[in-house]
Amino acid sequence: MNEISWDVAVIGGGSAGLSAALMLGRARRRVVVLDAGTPRNRFAAHMHGVLGHDGRPPADLLSIGRREVESYGGTILTTTATLTRRDGDGFAVETADGAIVRARTLLVTTGARDELPELDGLAERWGRGVAVCPYCDGYEVRDRRIGILATGPASEFQAQLLRQWSPSITYLADAVGAPGGETRSAFDARGIRVEEGPVRRVVSRDDRVAGVEMADGRLIELDAIFTIPRLVPRDEPLRQLGAERTEHPWGSFVTVDENGRTSIDGVWAAGNVVNAMANVSISIGAGALVAGAINHALILDDVRLAVSAATPAPARHE
Ligand SMILES: Cc1cc2nc3c(=O)[nH]c(=O)nc-3n(C[C@H](O)[C@H](O)[C@H](O)COP(=O)(O)OP(=O)(O)OC[C@H]3O[C@@H](n4cnc5c(N)ncnc54)[C@H](O)[C@@H]3O)c2cc1C
To answer: Would you give the distance in Å from CA 248 to the centre of its chain?
Structure first.
């Protein structure tokens, strides 16, 4: 059997993974983090709503986190995990640069990616005037002209939500059709305008969102656009191991218990990869929680191994 080098291999070194690695390092566990360096919020210049770090560039938080993990003996490898499989009593993770990392347990914190609606000019402004989360980016555009690029039923509430930050909300109904009935009455009651026609493109000026151009040629002037992209978990390592999933209205996610344990013995997951609602703070918290659960499981395993090593083998009578 192959030698196991690590107590825990963490796949994904964003907020969740580094938080877990920090706790595991402090618990004197041999922990390695494999990270491809593409956190979900890399498009944004600043992050908000993260206590003690409000307004800090996202990359700075992760640099600090990496230093903290390394200060407790954790190892961070910049690489992509390409294949994850069972290997004897533990797991083997193959990486894009040809290495094989072996560990007793696995933590998958690979995050998620946002599949943006197809619209000319939108992707270029993602994280820079086009956003999903009002709690992250709403305050910066308070009282400004905000467009809601509707993508599904949840967009109706997104419009009402953003109304908390600004009285100037325009609901761009192109992809979903004009709202009617109670929704329309509630929009009217709170002064939310509706544009029903097709949207042709996002218009930028001086490196800012300037508005959207409608198919009829009109420019709807806007300072920011909020939209709800399809969130796709980057859960290939968990798929490769055959982890069970749960179908939610917001997508298919690997099932975890309240401590982040998956259906695969020895494999945990935390952060956006299993929780669509997680932001940076929630991911940090989930990482800390799951680290405790992993250490607990490792201690039970250490006890089992110690007892079995201390128990004399039965005498052989020949
Ligand atoms: C534009 C934008 C702005 C945002 N702003 C805010 C904000 O202001 N405040 C806030 O709280 N939240 C914000 N968020 C949400 C926040 O980015 C996420 O909730 C948070 O990053 C989730 O942390 P995570 O650790 O689960 O995943 P991530 O931060 O996405 O980290 C996952 C890591 O895993 C790595 N990875 C993936 N697959 C592999 C693999 N196979 N092998 C190795 N490594 C892998 C990735 O490269 C990445 O480094 C924003 C999101 C977006 C899209």
So the answer is: 16
Domains of the chain by start residue, with CATH: 6-114+230-310 (3.50.50.60), 117-227 (3.50.50.60)
Residue type, 21: A
Q: Which atom of ligand 1 is nearest the CA belonging to 19?
A: 25
* Residue closest to 4 by CA, chosen among 102, 151, 134, 136: 102
Q: Distance, CA 19 to ligand 1 centroid (Å)?
A: 13
8 CA distance to ligand 1 middle (Å)? 20
Q: Whose CA is nearest to atom 13 of ligand 1?
A: 279
**ipTM, interface predicted TM-score of the complex:** 0.99
The per-residue DSSP string of 163-208 comes to TTT-S-EEEE-TTT----HHHHHHHHHTT-EEE-SPEEEEEEETTE
81-108 pLDDT, tens digit each: 999 999 999 999 999 999 999 999 999 9
Query: 271 CB less than 6 Å from ligand 1?
Result: yes
Does the Cβ of 47 fall within 6 Å of ligand 1? yes
Would you say how long the chain is, in residues? Answer: 318
Is the beta carbon of 233 within 6 A of some atom in ligand 1? no
Two tokens, residue 77: 């490898």
- Residue 20 Cβ contacting ligand 1 at under 6 Å: no
pLDDT tens-digit profile of 4-43? 789 999 999 999 999 999 999 999 999 999 999 999 999 9
- Does the structure show a pLDDT above 60 at 2? no
